Amino acid sequence: MGPRHPRVIGLLVAVACRGGTPAANTAARADSAVTARTWGLAHLQSRQLPQAETEFRKVIALAPDQALGYADLGLVYLRGGRYREAETQLRRAAELDSANSDVALMLAKVYQLTGRADDARQEIERVLRRDSTDIRGLYALSALPGTDRESLLRRIVARAPVNIVARLELIDLLLARGATGDAAGELEALQRQLPQLPREAARFFEGALRAARAGHAAEAAAQATRFDRAMEVTAAYQVGLQRLGGATGPLAGYPVLTFNQSMAVPTEDARAVAAAIRFIDVTAGSGLETVEALPDSLAGSLERGVALATGDYDDDAVEDLYVAGHLFRGDRGRFIETTANTGVAVRGRAVAAAFGDYDNDGRLDLYVATPEGGTLFRNTGGGRFKDVLIPSPATKALFVDLDHDGDLDLFLARPAGSRAYRNMLDGTFQEAGAQMGLAVPGSEGSRDAGVGDFDGDGRNDLVVVTAGGGEGGGGHVRYFHNLGQGRFEDATATSGLAKVVGAGAVAVGDYDNDGFLDLFVTSLSGSQATLFHNRGDGTFEPDRRTAGLRQELRGVAGLDAAFLDFDNDGWLDLIVVGKPATPGGRGVFLFRDDETRGFEDVSSILPDSLRAGRAVAVADVDQDGDLDLVVVGWDGRPHVLRNDGGNVNQYVDVRLAALRQGSGKSNAFALGATLELRARDLYQLRQVTDRVTHFGLGRRLKADVLRVRWPNGVSQTVYYPGSEQDVLEQQLLKGSCPFLYVWDGRAFTFATDVMWNSALGMPLGIMGSEGGIASASPRASQEYLRIPSGLLQPRAGRYELRLTEELWETAYLDIQLYLNERFAPAGPSALRFYQVAQPRSPVAATDELGNDLLPALRAQDDVYAATLRPTRYQGLTELHDLVLDFGNLAGRDSLFLFLTGWIYPTDASINFALAQSPLSQVVPLHLQVKDRAGVWRTVIPDLGFPAGKNKTIIADLTGKFLSADTRIRIRTNMEVYWDRAFVAATRGASPVTVTTLHPRAADLHYRGFSRMYRKGGRYGPQWYAYDEVSREPAWAPIAGAFTRYGDVLPLLDAPDDRYVIFGPGDETALQFDATPAPALPPGWTRDFVLYTDAWMKDADLNTASGGTVGPLPFHGMSRYPYGSDETYPTDAVHRRFVATYNTRLETRDSGLGARGSYATPESRVPSP
User: Fold this and answer.
1) CA-CA distance, 289 to 272, in Å (whole number)?
2) Full 3-state SS string of 836-885
3) Which residues of the chain have pLDDT under 70?
4) Phi, psi at residue 446, to the nearest 5°?
5) What pLDDT does residue 577 have?
6) Which of 117, 524, 720, 748 is the Cys-Cys partner for 741 at CB 3.0 to 4.6 Å?
7) CB atoms < 10 A from the CB of 1127, how many?
8) 316 with 4: CB under 8 angstroms?
9) Which residues in the chain are classed under CATH 2.60.40?
10) What was the pLDDT predicted at 989?
């Protein structure tokens, strides 16, 4: 069980001889050594230690100057408890390769097991001097006496947040020293990422979290210990332990996989390197022999006819297999049938299957189709499935988030017409193909489909191969462009694919490493197999390199195809399976992608006995760092083709994990995400279609940057990823509103966020009156925003403010500043000031469970009431109460409640999901009081909410109490954190002076992105450090014409639909003349109110027109986006505005991926 975690010691360049007897002898010895190594590793993984010992002794005999044989033989002895012999072999390996971390850590393990802690420490510290982030080295050091174990575990958690073992041990340490607050934070982080827990484990977890929040260390520690014991038997814990190198006995240590470069014949010919690789048919004895052959009646059929899918359903980091109605659990290159025990047996012949976690519980579910119907099996954990749904049959099934609402929908290609089943989030699916725009015209069915973001807008598009109507019985290819909000358009006519006929199957991948997903389409007639190059905008053209590939495939009826990097050189190769052109001919082809020569036929490295195939799947079956093949032969039986030698080059395997609670923005394993990897001069892009995404690195020792674009469009960067890289989704706000910084007399400091009252194109999370999803009002955000007292100070006679756009959104801005003395009612009619005296704090404050919240609410001190229980979604929690007791308030007139806090909002895609589901709905903040019968009654149904960071809402309590009991209950499921609460009566009018300040200078320029931190700890709002800024692009580009950089003062004189348009990374620097402000009389105070007339539009994939600047908003529009009956003003003034100012063009190619820059961690620099 568990991952392999190989760390390589160099590069094997075992190649075919290029002439000369010495070279031939060297190549032969290298080939024999590789064969012995392969068998040794296979025996080691199967725990057949005597057989492994024999093979690694052969390796030593063939390559006595190589560390590999000694290291792996030492590992055999280590796992067998033969520590003295292990030490001898490992010492020899260390002499030959002193820089190898695997060898050093295995040697340290031997020292530790034999009571030599100081020797173990020296070996481990040697590893950490080479790489201070090596989590295995850190964990090994933490196990030794006299180390700062807490610090080491914190470093591991920071580097590998998905690993639950390190976090659990850190929690135990924190509780042992009474640090309940820190322990609660780690428990909450664990809560956000763990899959659904067994009932017993969940009980202990809740007990530990509740006690830690209450500060009861001993009770929390006892509950945490019980939780640890419950988790230790889970696959996730065992995998985590193995990745840390913490296992002993049969799982201790890591095998060394590759020889040093000096082993083989020196050559620069990568073609010769690939030629040394072999795919070996290891089906015999694999456990797959029980799969039945197809009936004779289907022998001539050009349908695939056999279900084939791979996926890790039991969460042990080993690929499992579903084929032809049988479910097999992967076990180190072998397979154990579990069909009956797991409950996934179906009646009839299984013709299509797909794994996917449709309910986001962290377990892969399984869809299976037979000719008669389909079945969706829900994974209930513990290796069991439950039949929950029977949708229609299919020839190809795809789990894909069609509407980007954070859950997987189901697309079925079928002869009777495609079906698109929308996930309703309540365990049911609703067929919505026609509603989504995915219905194929007429009665034309479909046989295959592929998914990918082909135009770079972040949304999943679909390519569908239709059934029939084409040459040789094949079909056409249709391209469906994703418009957002679950709507597609048939863009086949302009895609470059309209002339395809006779198609059989489609494969998706970026084979030319230009950052855009390309296509390969097979031909059922054997005449039209074609590579389609993506032009970069979602349109395609036949690749000039197709001719040779087509010639090789002439006459072959291609039933399936897949891209893969079988030699780990960083370029996608191609496997095609089908029916040969002639009986006995070849119908299974492997093409190697040579970056200079194109695709070359290397089918000779496949088993010659496998001449035809119906389906193919790609996975690292034996967990050795290269990709193997599972091919369903023409008779319907599966063949496992083990890749021997493909791991001669380095690789990176990436596993994505979305947060399971408090997010809801991505499906559990981020299917549909885009990964970009840079390793020196090599750039690659991959679409995530499985739990593991494989990258080859060629001769490069490591990757420099991994960038994840999650299915919700948010980017996340990992520097220097490891060969086994887990990436946990970061909890980030991608959209909210622009930020305001002000000069406080010493520096620019973050004040608050602005423009919360505008959300152009955003779904509201409720259904509209006509059955569609309601959207936010198109009105501008005419907002008065109080700047905290004393924060804004003059500099050189001017007040200076900075408005920045640092999230994934576009702002359209006009602005004014009001200066008010004594802060009394005055100013514009829409502006109301509250003047209060003798604010009265509560005498008691509790939540719905009786937890004491009073200490957090007495003062505005960045200590927040925080006992919320998260749900799946960001911005929504379990229903919670704030019960406030201010003492006797009876008879008080003109009484107001003031609540200061902040809100973590939902976003457009979450709102879109909520609008579809009856299970999760927003409950607005509402205020209740007790009636005479002691029953809580709602007297204010909607209090609003604190619009952003540290805002105050005000409720008029006058006449609201229904009894002598004057307690107040605020109830909601919105994620609101309160900092202060008080009641007060308003005072009468007092003298006031209001001065309006217009900006005197305004400059728009690029600045970058401030460092984010949490003000007030983990429950505080996200805050920003102005003087620490990163120039690196943080978000995918928003396309369109922004305001050109420079002076923008003329655009801020009036709300006239001429405004500053600025986007991510931009800053508008404002200066206001301070001289109009009169001197203050004794006892007076001065405050500032910022007025904005503006719109904000975030770039969420479900925000209407969110990915573009246009259409431009204007006062008076009735909706957004507006239709053809409305238009932005076209008079001379506005035409001149557009032509003069809106000239800074951004495209989707700007800033990310191969088309943009890859920054280093050092790109964060002080702000100018």
Assistant:
1) 34
2) EEEEECCCEEECCCCCECHHHHCCCCCCCECCCCECCECCEEEEEEEEEE
3) 1-28, 246-269, 390, 440-443, 469-474, 765-772, 816-833, 891, 987-992, 1149-1168
4) -145, 155
5) 97
6) 748
7) 12
8) no
9) 650-728
10) 59
For the chain, the straight-line distance linking the first and the last C-alpha, in angstroms and rounded, comes to: 53
Distance from C-alpha of 521 to C-alpha of 30, rounded to nearest angstrom = 38
Cβ atoms 813, 1062 nearer than 8 A: yes
Task: Please give the C-alpha separations between residue 213 and each of 175, 277, 347, 853, 970, in angstroms, as whole numbers.
Answer: 11, 57, 52, 12, 22
Q: Give the H or E element holding residue 18.
A: none
pLDDT digits (tens, 9 = 90+) for 1108-1153: 999 999 998 999 999 999 999 999 999 999 999 999 999 876 544 4
Distance CA 216, CA 878 (A): 23
Neighbours of 1030 (CB within 10 A): 18
Q: Find out whether 219 and 68 touch, Cβ atoms under 8 Å.
A: no
**CA atoms of 451 and 445, how far apart (whole Å):** 18
Encode burial over 240-268: b for 16+ CB neighbours within 10 A, e otherwise: bbbbbbbbeeeebbbbbbbbbeebbbeee
332: three-class secondary structure by DSSP: coil
| Interstrand relation of 613-619 and 628-633 (parallel, antiparallel or unpaired) | antiparallel
3-state secondary structure of 432: coil
Given the candidates 2.60.120, 1.10.3470, 1.10.3430, 3.40.50, the CATH classification of the domain at 836-986 is 2.60.120
HSE (side-chain half, CA atoms, 13 Å) at 126:
18
**Residue position matching structure tokens 């991926």:** 1153
Going across the sheet that includes 936-940, the strands are: 844-846, 876-885, 968-974, 926-930, 936-940
> What is the amino acid identity at position 435?
Q
Rounded CA separation 800/747 (Å): 10
Amino acid at 54: T
For residue 311, give every residue at least 6 positions away whose Cβ sits within 8 Å of its Cβ, in sequence order, or none.
319, 320, 322, 355, 356, 364, 366, 690, 691
pTM of this structure: 0.89
Q: How many CA atoms lie less than 13 Å away from 16 in the CB half-sphere?
A: 10
Residue 434 φ/ψ region, left for φ over 0, alpha for ψ in the -120 to 50 degree band, beta for the rest:
alpha
Please say whether the dihedral angle defined by the alpha carbons of residues 1157, 1158, 1162 and 1166, taken in this order, is positive or negative.
positive
Both tokens of 629, joined, read: 């093949």
DSSP conformation class of 288: G
The label of the residue with tokens 């196990």 reads 143
- Beta carbons within 8 Å of 1073's beta carbon, 6+ residues apart: 797, 798, 799, 997, 1000
Q: What's the token pair of residue 819? A: 């200066």
Domain boundaries for CATH 2.60.120 within the chain: 836-986
The pLDDT value recorded for residue 50 is 92
CA–CA distance, 899 with 725 (Å, rounded to integer): 44
* Dihedral angle sign, alpha carbons of residues 1055, 1056, 1060, 1062: positive
Distance CA 676, CA 688 (A): 11
* Residue 813: how many other CB atoms lie within 10 Å: 27
- Provide the sign of the torsion angle of the four alpha carbons 536, 541, 544, 546, taken in this order: positive
Look at the chain and count its residues: 1168
Alpha-helix residue ranges (DSSP H) falling in 131-277? 135-142, 149-159, 164-176, 180-193, 199-213, 217-232, 235-243, 270-275
Its CATH architecture, for the domain 650-728, is Sandwich (2.60)
Task: State the Cα–Cα distance between residues 486 and 483, nearest whole angstrom.
Answer: 7
Instruction: Show Cβ contacts of residue 166 under 8 Å, excluding neighbours closer than 6 positions.
Output: 135, 139, 153, 156, 157, 160, 240, 244
Give the DSSP H/E element, type plus range, for residue 324.
Answer: none
Per-position DSSP letters for 635-700, written without gaps between them: TS-EEEEEEESGGGSEEEEEEEE--TTTB-SS-TT-TT-EEEEEETTEEEEEE--SS-EEEEEET-
